[in-house]
Input
Amino acid sequence: MAKTYYITTPIYYPSGKLHIGNTYTTVLCDALRRYKDMRGYDTFYLTGMDEHGKKIETVAKERNLPPIKHVDEIAEETEKLWERMRISHDDFIRTTEKRHKTVVQKIFERLLDQGDIYPGMYEGYYCMHCESFFTESQLEEGNLCPDCGRETSKLQEESYFLRLSKYEKKLLDFIEKNPGFITPESRKNEVVAFLRQGLQDLSVSRTTFDWGIKVVSNPKHVVYVWIDALSNYLSALGYSTDDDAKFQKYWFGDEVVHVVGKDILRFHAIYWPIMLMALDIPITFRLHVHGFYMQKEGKMSKSKGGVIYPDTLIENYGLDELRYFLLRELPYGSDGVFTPESFIDRINFDLANDFGNLLNRTISMINKYFQGKVTAYSEATTPYDEDLRKVAEATVADYETLMDELKVAEAIKTAWKLISRANKYIDETTPWLLAKDESKSGELENVLYHLAESLRIVGILLRPILLEASRALFKQLGVPKSLREYETVTFGELSEITVTKKPSPLFPRLDVKEEVQKLQKVIRGEEESEKTEEDETLVSLDDFTKLDVRVAKVVECRNHPNADKLLVLTVDVGDLGTRQLVAGVAKHYEPKELEGKLVVAIVNLEPVNLRGEKSEGMLLAGSNEKTMEILFVKDLEPGDPVQ
Ligand SMILES: [Zn+2]
Output
């Protein structure tokens, strides 16, 4: 049986549009998940949203919306962003969902019953903005909030408390016995130091707002953020429900990884393990803590102005460029800096020059000297060949170790060692000179084979990082599907190669000055909107004809297991075979009524994963504020084209 891998991001608090710094954790987990997939693991990737609390209640009121409408909007936007960034999560849990609420209520009542939660009085200085109480000694001068600097007010309220003190010693022991529990080491030391000062019991309920999960035995209280939010890692797996197969499989499986930013270290390293201890659930996870993307002026934040959003970078430079930068530039265990210069430099130097250019030169030479085809050639090996092979081997070994240690930036650096070595190999072997001497044809073929094979290996290693470029590389090199798999990552697996006649650059080189200026403008908020609305509605006929629209017959239809609004349809598209489509029509159609119907669908869209279900196309439907209607046809056959 395949080994299992359960990886999670924290659930995001919907306080605004996510900037690139906010998206780092999600991209990191996506890369790790794809890596483990490639290594044959049975993986489960969870992300989601933390949707309760006073702040949400207040903002919704300001917007004149029920809180649920407000968070629905943000959740939809967030899911769209993840789709755009091709995040491969299996589930998107929202704390306002019923499946989550019931679990939280069960957990709370159980801890209350067994005395790990008890009622008491909370007194302190309360910051409305941060929804936090502080002790007098924690406040800034003038009784200001130490986190946001706003005024606080002295408050006393009834509250339930979680008995952290009882588990302090047990948690310290656990951390000492499990040295890999918290990484990097520096974060572990921080936690240990904090624990040694002794723990205060934690206030885990509130009576000052309503927008939360009610305490069943005392509905005046809502469960406060810690127990509510942290429980998502269990509720998404069906813990304590009739259907807890995922919990059994992934929580008790081979690897469980929580990835978090350093700002929420304490919650995950102290409150969460103590909750699990109290619930008698084994602590099977490891906690990985990363730093932040900063700007020159400090932490990237919307209130300071000058943030940059993923959309802008994807639109102007591409998804791979953004993923590469995010994953490459943040060093393990510390903070990184985003500047327009560093972003454009990474694209130009690493992606366009080192990597893209190597592929382009290799393909051009194979076309020029061997009409596009080379085979493995073993006779005329040189010391350069041997060295290149050795570097390839070492690269793969290092890459594995680093990825397994969650050191993604370092793993990428390692892959670039092989790229650099291959570039140097061209200088050493001088193929253009070999080409002048008929008798050296074998040697020349050998050189080109070595280059192509190195690039194939690089393509495999970068599959979890560069989603589009790795595919393009395989395509241009003519690497068959079976040799794109990780099992074939050893040098020499590829015996013959036929490259494309027309290589196109993976990463076009950018004009540094121009692009840096453009980005600086965006950061200052002066982005000129170059596109008018009219431009956006005009699509060339060429673009339109790229879409393959067909009549499809619904063979099977069911509700999406993780989303109320979605249906999962299996459709027959005639000669194209069957496809799975996920469509947002569950509010308007019952699964059974669609079975047997002929619908219209776009069938050549790149597949996407929608909350754990693959969607290989798009069902066409019309809608307005009142209703939604699927386009049905009557007398056509499955697979018939629609123009
Ligand atoms: Zn505050």
Notes: Residues 127, 129-130, 145, 147-148, 150 surround zinc ion (CB under 6 Å). The two ends are 47 Å apart (CA to CA). The longest helix spans residues 340-370. The domain at 339-498 is CATH 1.10.730.10 (Isoleucyl-tRNA Synthetase; Domain 1).
